Amino acid sequence: MENNAQRKRQPDRPFYLPQGDTTSSRIITEAKESLSSRTGLQAVVTKRPCTPRDATRSLFGATSTRTPENRPPSSFSLGSRHFDGSDTSRPTSRTRLQPINHNPSFSALSEEKPKLPSEDEAEPGLLPPKPPSDPNKVQRGKVTRTRLQQSTSVEGSISSDAKSRLDTSPSDGNQVIKNIDEPVRRAHSGPKERSPLPVEERGEGDGREMPHRAPSSASVRSPPHSAESRGGSGGTKRTSSAGSTGRGGSAGRREEETAEEALFYSQNVSPLLERMAEASKKDPKRLGQVADDLYSLLQKENLLGRNCKQRTVILKSVFKLLDVDDTCAQLKLAKLILSFKITGNNLLSACKLVFKISRNEKNDPEFLKGDVLDVLMDTLRGTDPFSASEALVFCIGSLKLLTGNSTIVKQLIKKDCIENLAILFNSINKTIREGSEPTTQLGNILVQATAALRNLADAGSSRERLLGCQAIESLCLIIDSFTSDGDLMLNISRIFSKVTLHTDCCTALADHPTSYKSFVNILQKHQHKSDVVVRVSFVLGNMTAKNEVARLRLFQEAGSFDILMSLFRFYLEQDIKNQGNEVKKEVTEDGSTVNKTEDVLIKVIRVIANLSINENVGPVICSNYQCVDYLLKVLESRDVSCSEELVLNTVATVNNLSFYNTKTSAITTLQIRVLEALLKLVLANNMEAMVEACRVFANLTRQKVVRDFLTEQKIDRMLVTMLDSGNREVVYISCGVLINFMVDEEKRPILKQEHGIRKLIEVLRDFSRTDWELASLVCQILWNYSGKITSSNDSFGQQESQDLMELLMELLDRDSALDLSFKEEVDEEMTDYFEETWTEQFCPVAEQLLQRIETHQSDLEPLETPSGS
Fold first, then answer.
1. What is the C-alpha to C-alpha distance for residues 227 and 220, in angstroms, rounded to an integer?
2. pTM of the predicted model as reported, rounded to 2 decimal places
3. Which of 234-243, 351-360, 640-649, 709-718 shows the lowest mean pLDDT across its residues?
């Protein structure tokens, strides 16, 4: 009990005084909220559900509902062999095409060597003619792969005469083959015979590009700084050793490179690549530093991304170094690779590599060095969630793991990570609105993104950013599209459970047109998934704690109260069933444990309590016998010493419902059962439980049958004793119940017998100037008590009567009553507040009580008038 009191209670202070520094307007607001709760209705407060401790860093936690085939693995082998750098002409296609069965005959050319057309004569881009009706004829522009290899192999040995003899007339039906130097189309992969593949399928920038027939479409820039200093791009030209890997570039033929570009590469880039290769064998730690030097050089010359003609050569060289046994070097190599804006399989492998490194929290400091986080942000922005979904899963998965580090969180927020995630959400929402189906891969991306945002939401500066980029609204739309995805709904509910601790975020969520429907749908879909239910219920409790419109809108949402009752019934049955058995408790991040079933009940009951504050909703819930029955079962089956928060929340809900004295009230019908359930709380060694129970007594004692029942249990005597507690709220509640007891004439003597008059005078003296409402209650008790007064001294006691009269005269004097000189800081708003409560609440009843005391002050009987006078 002593530990309980220390944890729950703080030193007594006036109800209007804040904890810590705040403005006077906040003081007034809290005071008015306190006064509102004293009338019988109060919003229930509860702690936020704790996130379970995750011992391992993985894409999907141990509690994930995804099957292995529907999610990428968190563990995998990865090395240089997983990066594509050997084949620069053919991309990796996810769909393998079946070989063509047609095998054209070359009998007409059996004695002649083919001659390919010259570069000037060739017409790139011509569509092939229809296949010949005669399979023995060779179609124009069509050569089998075997024949092509044969003719290419003898290129260097064919004389000019032989070449002229190889020309055949178009009229003979055979193919005219010219210019052996012209690259030819492969039988199974001609780029112009098929529609061009998307960028992701072409594998641009990763050394696996689809060859093009229009080299003029490529646009490869030379280094801007070095080019200007060397007099532009003119001069002697040479052929580069590899095709451009830029967007739209031609990897099927060699790109022309200026002398300046070749010189820059040979003098600056090539030596660094050689040093990197040497360091990978002798000094892996040195490799990371040289990789940083190369990155800085290319960044300075604006040769990152797709601006470098030697991009493929550099990537090939870097890929070979990825087997190095040094995490720091691997991360810097991955940063360099990603900075080239790779796509396809290489993008996936690079993101996997970064994810693998991020799984070990010991590597977190390495992500704070250099531009690693910036490159990850660029990858997030530049990766299409539809064509490169798996790569994006690992990229954002890395960010999710890194957001477990508070220092990295601050850096990511500064780098607009929240805004970039919001853009991703908007992109997916827009595509779905346009008719696309929500896919498992999109769900996997969103699980990682929302998990990262969940961690980012903890930072103090995140709230403004979340509101500014409308991330809250985007998450509501995601709920509508992915309601069945339990992992995703859990992450979103975790985000909302954090941000709705603040009024501005609560307002934004409450104002969203579909938020209530979305949350009801989640509860219906996942009502047996406790970790989702507890958080969604917590969010709804936050939304309805201070927002009157939210209470009404939630209650009016179709099926909302039915699902709350369904949840209440299911988890109450589970709780009763588990009693007496050892229940497995969940370990939270702070090391504490929580009973998940009990936690759900706490949050669901809180929503009901907050809904019942609304004057239209409250009477309806109050008349629901099923709801009241469940509440009483909680009180009857649970002990406050073991389940304090659950019991206190339940009593607070009963208190709110007992406020409505309607004919159909289930509380009134079951009032004896209610009283019996509350009596054990009054007798428990828990002051807060006693106060909450007395709040209910204050509402129920409006009926004489209740007053009689409580008098038999000697509750009236206990209430008089509580006037000595010194706790403002305890005294207030006791006074509220005693007012009702003093209505019955036969119950009034107990007040004087238990020295209640003297105690009330002391309460008036101690609390009046800082709590005029409490002072008003004291006067009301004394007014009801003295209803049959004949003598003030007989009624109150001679000394008590005198002290009371003098005190009332002092408190009714404006200058004396409103003197706030004892307070350190008083502004005009606070002064007006005290004057208002003194004038409207205290003075009317105090003046009448004083007049009654003065009128009945004398004990002398009037003398008879002498006869004849």
1. 13
2. 0.74
3. 234-243
| Residues contacting residue 296 through CB under 8 Å, at least 6 positions apart | none
CB 658 within 8 A of CB 696: yes
Cα separation, 478 vs 425, in Å, equals 8
Task: Tell me the C-alpha to C-alpha distance, in Å, between residue 305 and each of 2, 249, 270, 308, 394.
Answer: 66, 14, 18, 8, 20
Question: For residues 388 and 348, is the Cβ–Cβ distance under 8 A?
Answer: yes
Sign of CA pseudo-dihedral 529, 534, 539, 540: positive
In three-state secondary structure terms, 586 is: strand
Question: Torsions phi, psi of 498, nearest 5?
Answer: -85, -50
Parallel, antiparallel or unpaired: strands 593-594 and 256-258? unpaired
Tell me, what's the pLDDT at 42?
Answer: 81
- Judged by phi (left if over 0) then psi (alpha if -120 to 50, else beta), residue 633 lies in alpha
- pLDDT for the residue 281: 87
- pLDDT at residue 746 tops 90: yes
Per the CB < 8 A criterion, the answer to whether 213 and 124 are in contact is: yes
Q: Which of 57-71, 191-205, 619-633, 805-819 has the lowest mean pLDDT?
A: 191-205
What is 773-803 written as a DSSP string?
Answer: HHHHHHHHHHHHHTTT-S-HHHHH-HHHHHH
Q: How far is CA 558 from the centre of its chain?
A: 26
Over residues 694-718, the mean pLDDT reads: 94
Q: What pLDDT score was predicted for residue 459?
A: 85
Structural tokens at position 337: 């690779």
Burial of 232 (0-12, 13-18, 19+ CB in 10 A): exposed
556 close to 567: Cβ distance less than 8 angstroms? no
* Phi (first) and psi of residue 52, to 5 degrees: -65, 150
Q: Considering the chain, tell me which residue range(s) the CATH 1.25.10.10 domain(s) occupy.
A: 25-45+615-855
**Residue located via tokens 């009596």:** 679
Using N-to-C axis directions, what is the helix angle for 772-785 and 756-767, rounded to 10°?
Answer: 160
The CATH number fitting domain 25-45+615-855, selected from 2.30.30.100, 3.30.450.40, 1.25.10.10, 3.40.50.2300:
1.25.10.10
Residue 663 in 3-state DSSP? Answer: coil
Q: Residue 566 and residue 560: Cα distance in Å, rounded?
A: 10
Q: Which two tokens stand for residue 844?
A: 């009317």
Q: Is 490 helix (H, G, I), strand (E, B) or coil?
A: helix
Residue with tokens 């060289």: 317
Q: Which amino acid type is present at position 680? A: K
Of 344, 452, 340, 469, the residue nearest 396 (C-alpha): 452
> Tokens 């060397």 map to which residue?
230
- Residue with tokens 């008349």, as numbered in its chain: 623
Token look-up 């209670």 returns: 9
